[in-house]
Amino acid sequence: MSLPRREHQDRAADEDNRGVAISIDGLARSFGAQAVLEGIDLKIEAGSFVAVVGRSGCGKSTLLRLLVGLDQPTSGSVRFSDPVTGAAVAGAGRIMFQEARLLPWAKVLENVEVGLGRRRSLPTARAAASATLAAVGLEGRENDWPGVLSGGQRQRVALARSLVSAPDFLALDEPFGALDALTRIEMQTLLEGVWLDQGFTALFVTHDVAEALTLADRVILLEDGRVALDQVVDLPRPRRRGSVDLALLEEQILKAILGSERVRPEYEI
Amino acid sequence: MTVAPMNDATSLTLPRRVSVLSWSPARLVEWGARHGAPWLVPLLLLALWQLGASLGAIPPNVAPSPVDVAKAFGRLTASGELLSNIEISFLRALGGLLVGGSLGFALGLANGLSPGSERLLDSTVQMIRTVPHLALIPLVILWFGIEEDAKLFLVGLGVLFPVYINTFHGIRTVDAQLVEMARSYDMSGFELFRRVIFPGALPSIFVGLRYAIGIAWLTLIVAETIAAQSGIGYMAMNARDFMQVDVIVVAIIVYALLGKAADSLVRRLERSYLGWHAAFRDRN
Q1: Which CATH code is given to the segment(s) B70-280?
Q2: Out of 3.40.190.80, 3.30.70.330, 3.90.550.10, 3.40.50.300, which CATH number does the structure's domain A17-93+167-258 have?
Q3: Which residue of A has its CA nearest to B275?
Q4: Taking every annotated instance into account, which residue ranges of this chain make up the domain ABC transporter (chain A) (predicted)?
Q5: Which residues of A touch B202 (CB under 8 A)?
Q6: Chain A residues within an 8 Å CB radius of B274
Q7: Is B76 within 8 Å of B253 (Cβ atoms)?
């Protein structure tokens, strides 16, 4: 893969130096009387891959939107800091949505260029977009309309768009939720690959516990706007789908999610 | 939707404008069927009409035969009368379209982009819209006489509303998710408009333009027949005074052709600017 590396390339080999560290303090967000997040405290290590799981409506998406600045918290704060110096940095997070959200009237390459933010009008934009597009396996599709791509390919373009600016932090809001099972596995492998390559800090929201466990260093369960479980996943990569270790962890997390509401069946075999 | 028989995969990759000569007879028939079919019914009607006139079933003071109409067409073209009248009518339609269309577009933009502007102006525009603009003809004659201003005013007024409503609607219905995406990539102001909002509203704006062209012709015909000293409508009204039915029919045909030409032009624009949209992709 030949993704555009971040500036300090000499440090790229040292994993501790990539991505930003995120510290979230008492983050709360309510819509009217409805409290969606009630005081989240989290420290996210630079360059780590953290999955956030939970039922729908538990506030996962709200948390992501707050982190990338698409929404403002009611109280609390988010601080991004350089892992080496510890100095605060402006959060340059990117977000990838469940829908690809490509501009249908822009060719694939132009859609990727959008991801460059303010640098998209520089003469280097084309080359950067091309390289990133190739890295997600879409070389040669630069001049296609998004309308002719498959769901998986559109999501690849969206991934390229969110990666092209080499972000310190990438938020992913159920990005593979609408894909078929096989395409989803393909995309998970692709995402893991680019994350290992670029080393950004990743926050991955999903409702699929197995997916969370395949990808993440740490799984956080949100329940009623609070952190209900914080589980480190210390298994070697690439993880084998269906391995016993993963299954045991999945069972444990699912129990935590469903536990309170599990009804004892009337008859047991 | 045209369902052209595409049995062999190669026909999909052929360049679109292939010389007819290089085509096989079967393909020629196919080409003829595709491009000739829309003209079949009009030609049939024309033949029936000519037959009726030749047999005396249609009296010449009700409708002249197609041949007589063609002769009148030739006569009017030779004298230059037809062309100068077409030019005048065309310029009136174009002028009205430009003035009314730009105003409608500007208002649509302003009200679509700014809620404040919408609160201030939208209800006024809607009130004026409900008045049939042709009802203003007596007033317009009082104000402007039968000079060019009168036609420009009427056409402009008629054209303003379809352009306004469709521009406004197009902007308001731009996918909010795309706007949010663009904002998350630091897009704002004119760039957001240029890259996201305007292209998103364009299909709707084109619908407005096509409506507007129809209304421009309609208004022009009425205005020219009532209050004008030149133009195709005037030519037709003048012919009525001299019982020249053939000239009247020529005028009507010219209106039809011009209307069709304008509509085709907009379709062509749609195809080149909305190529990304599946509904407008070249079906060939």
Answers
A1: 1.10.3720.10
A2: 3.40.50.300
A3: A105
A4: 22-249
A5: 105
A6: 105
A7: no
pLDDT digit string (tens) for A19-73?
A: 899 999 999 999 888 889 988 999 999 999 999 998 888 888 899 999 988 889 9
What residues in A contact B186, CB-CB < 8 Å?
117-118
Quote the minimal CA–CA distance from A154 to chain B in Å: 14
Q: What is the pLDDT of residues B239-284, one digit of tens each?
A: 888 888 889 989 988 988 888 888 889 989 988 888 888 777 654 3
Complex ipTM > 0.90:
no
- Boundaries of every domain in chain A: 17-93+167-258
Residue located via tokens 């893991």: A192
pLDDT of res. B277: 84
Buried b (16+ CB within 10 A) or exposed e, B222-244: bbbbbbbebbbbbbbbbbeeeeb
pLDDT at position A262, please? 55
User: With an 8 Å Cβ cutoff, are A147 and B276 in contact?
Assistant: yes
**Best of B184, B204, B271 to mutate (most A CBs within 10 Å, chain A):** B184
One-letter amino acid at B210 equals R
pLDDT per position as a tens digit, B32-88: 888 888 888 988 998 998 898 888 888 877 888 888 889 999 999 999 989 999 999
Per CB-CB distance under 8 Å, the chain A contacts of B200 are: 105
Q: Do B275 and A145 touch (CB under 8 A)?
A: yes
Contact: A114, B275; criterion CB under 8 Å = no
Q: Is A265 left (phi over 0), alpha (psi -120 to 50) or beta?
A: beta
Question: What contacts B165, CB < 8 A, 6 or more positions away?
Answer: B108, B129, B208
Residue A92, min C-alpha distance to chain B (Å): 10
Please list every residue in chain A whose beta carbon sits closer than 8 Å to the beta carbon of residue B173. Answer: none
Domain boundaries, chain B: 18-58, 70-280
Choose among B177, B185, B274: nearest Cβ to A114: B185
